[in-house]
Specification:
Largest sheet: 4 strands, mixed
Structural class: alpha+beta
Order of helices and strands: HEEHHEHE
Strand order of the largest sheet: 3-1-2-4
Helix content: 40-55%
Number of helices: 4
Strand content: 15-25%
Radius of gyration: 17 Å
């Protein structure tokens, strides 16, 4: 890859639109559901699964269920993508908080905190 192609690829990567929104993590064995918000839904599952596999104490309740039931009992689900193109960073954060409250109540879930 020549320098110009590399620069173009790097620029395109930096300018890409990453979806933000709400997600759920479900433990099918225990029936527990956790809801979280993400500024990058595409990378969220990998990040979360890595932390759980490594035994990170950041997410206590999901980590305990992960140790007890294993990865096969877990599912990641995108609940909602928020179109934040016309929102300021503060507006996006407000929208995420508002939708998080909605999904916590709708799914009778716990907040995924970290």
């Amino acid at each position: 890859m020549d320098k110009k192609s590399r620069r173009d690829a790097v620029r395109d990567y930096k300018e890409r639109k990453v979806p933000c929104g709400m997600f759920a993590v479900r433990c099918t064995a225990s029936g527990e559901v956790w809801v979280g918000q993400s500024r990058n839904l595409e990378a969220q599952q990998n990040s979360l699964w890595f932390g759980l596999k490594m035994g990170s104490p950041v997410f206590r309740a999901p980590a305990a269920a992960w140790r007890e039931h294993g990865e096969g009992a877990f599912a990641f689900e995108v609940l909602e993508v928020i179109d934040d193109e016309d929102l300021s960073p503060m507006g996006r954060d407000d929208a995420l908080k508002r939708r998080e409250r909605h999904w916590l109540e709708a799914l009778n879930a716990r907040k995924l905190t970290g």
